[in-house]
């Protein structure tokens, strides 16, 4: 694949974008649009109240829950077991290992960078760790894009791959937006999480997935036939 191919350039650019944002945050740089976007989602003059009806706030909490350790963990276990039972055992192991390692890296980055959560609005969801990068944004991108990529490798069909990636991105964006709406993340936390997640999942699928796709049932059958 050419180095100018989007499949190479996009994750590379995403990786550099994350590093740039991380260095700016560590150096103490702040972004004016962070505050403006957070306040834009609150009732003017009442930063404790999110915009929209009560059901919207509940829907945002539900979406945020899908990006939690429990939500993403359940998705990872389900996808890994499915791949395993279908005969793609190396893909199953690669998926589980990628998500677990990403979870450890997310925790480590939060501890090292230590950015404070938004303090200009009331939080409408509980938080227990630092703000940068958004673990929900990072881990949802890693998990969902890796699942989509590995399913694409197993299915060997571009239409299925595109469908899975499209659905994955729809949920990734909604989860990231929910974190800003709930007031628990700055927009740059979410953006950084997305960038790192894109880079991570791309490497996982390219280096782990494609090499381990040889474990597919069809591939094993071909080897046995020889």
TrEMBL record:
Keywords of this entry: Membrane, Transmembrane, Transmembrane helix
CDD domains on file: PAP2_like_2
Membrane-crossing residue ranges in chain numbering: 63-84, 91-113, 133-155, 167-184, 190-208
Entry keyword annotation includes Membrane: yes
Pfam hit, one: PAP2
InterPro entries reported in the protein's UniProt record: PAP2/HPO, PAP2/HPO_sf
UniProt entry tagged with the keyword Membrane: yes
SMART domains assigned to the protein according to its UniProt record, in alphabetical order: acidPPc (SM00014)
Domain spans labelled Phosphatidic acid phosphatase type 2/haloperoxidase: 91-205
Protein name from the UniProt record: Undecaprenyl-diphosphatase
Organism: Bosea psychrotolerans
Lineage of source species: Bacteria, Pseudomonadati, Pseudomonadota, Alphaproteobacteria, Hyphomicrobiales
